[in-house]
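Notes continue from the previous slide.

Worked example: a multi-chain complex. Inputs as given:
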Amino acid sequence: MRALVVIERLADGVDELSLQALAFGRGLAGGPDVHALAVGEGGADLAPLLGAHGVSEVHVAEHEAFVSYAPPAVARAVVDLVERLSPGLVLAAGSDRGNEVLARAAAMVELPFAANCVDATTGDPLRVTRQRWGGSLLEEAELAGAPALLTVAPHVVAAAPVDGAEATVDTFTPTLSPDELAVRVVEHVRAEAAGVSLSDANVVVSGGRGTGSAEGFAVLEELAELLRGAVGCSRAVTMAGWRPHTDQVGQTGTKIAPDIYIACGISGATQHMAGCKGAKKILAINVDPEASIMASADYAVIGDLREVVPAVSAEIRKARGT
Amino acid sequence: MRVLVCVKRVPMTGGRIVLTEDAQEIDTAHLGFTISPHEECGIEEAARLIEAHGGESVVLTLGAAEAEEQLRDAMALGIDRALHLDSEGSEWDGQATAEAITNAIRAEEAASGTFDLVFFGNESADAGGFQVGIRVAHALGRPCVTGLKGIAVEGSGVRCEQEVPGGRDVYRIPFPAIVTVKEGLNLPHYPSVPAKLRAQRQPVDTATPARQEQRLRKLRLVVPESRGKRAEVLGEGPAAAERVVEVLREIGVA
């Protein structure tokens, strides 16, 4: 079966999640007939890399619209290729942009779209297993019509290079209507750099309702600083106004993957666990040994975070002789 | 201006998801319900816009009869009136949902005028389809920006901000427009008691659209296997600190 995979580009290559989607698509296609769409100038430079990830042909959409991200224009390029190549499968990464572009393409061709799939089986109809509740629940479903449009949930398959030749390059200009050119990024506002970012931190020290107040985070900040980590929080904390939403770990907050997640006074609602399940290790500090989070934690300390966390900080200082 | 907010009633799942025997739904016998989190911010933003610019705000849901509770919650937060599309209990896929909402918007606009702005959540908390707002925008031929963390009215359109790695991307689109928003757009306030009482008397118009054929057809739900581990208890209270630091050192972070 022929697969078309929509690639998200970085300044110097291809986004890791797109390489994962390629590996997923190659497996599902069951053969070498894997095409990729790369939007914008310089897309042809990706031919060696994409070839090494199993792409036989890369289609480079060129248009002045693509100097900045223009989601309806990207979706139209997908639809143009669907009409020309008649793929059985159209895939993208289950990222913000991957989900957006495939939903737009699905609306244009009036087909169903399955977001964040973790597994799929070809057949008529195609069968998928997809994430609900940020991955806390799975749904098995059938997708009617062809091609099947789906995105691949992040980190369910690894990118897998193959002994592939360089992909051939086809350059084309999509036919864009004025409406499709109207929605585009017109400005980028740079974030002020502020310490270790939550999504990249090796250590995240996070607080829930058990912190009791905004001031209750002082002990967590102290520990995070000692460990060169970031401070996180649960949704209950954000809703109470104790911390900004940018600190929130969870299904509707930031999804993190630190070496260790230190969850203090956090009960472990599914909404929260959907954001921290990528952590390599979880240490729960909680007064309640029956808290839900214990089912997902590697280590636990039973006790009041207001006593335990300062004691841990003191112990680190003692060990360092500071 | 006229603003519409589309919301979804979802269960508050707590710590563990339990399914019904036929694995078609979450067993909600012991659960409360809420508005899907992204959409709570849509309600807050709509209420603030109308407060600042004048006009009317409307909330719409496609859901079971019980979803009236979430419509009243939205009105307690400042929305003027509600439209309830009764799904008669069953779950609808993204295409069927979008079609019903598109038709409802057309009917409502024919009667009361065009909505300058329609809010959706970027994705629902439960089904996570990432598509209903986009499909409605396409059907109505309106510009749509997704996943907003910032929005400001500028003349006869909106400036939209999306969080991306390293900062924010900005879009500008004219009215009438459709936006999908994410939690963090604002901090929703809690409703006052008088507002809650008033919401009980505010109007809810109900319609029962026909359910289209499901093209993303749910077969069954599966609770993923948990990590299947039992946490190693490092100790109780501050006395556990020494053992905690040993573990942090083993992991290589202390």
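Summary box: The mean pLDDT of chain A is 96. Chain A touches chain B through 98 residues (CB under 8 Å).
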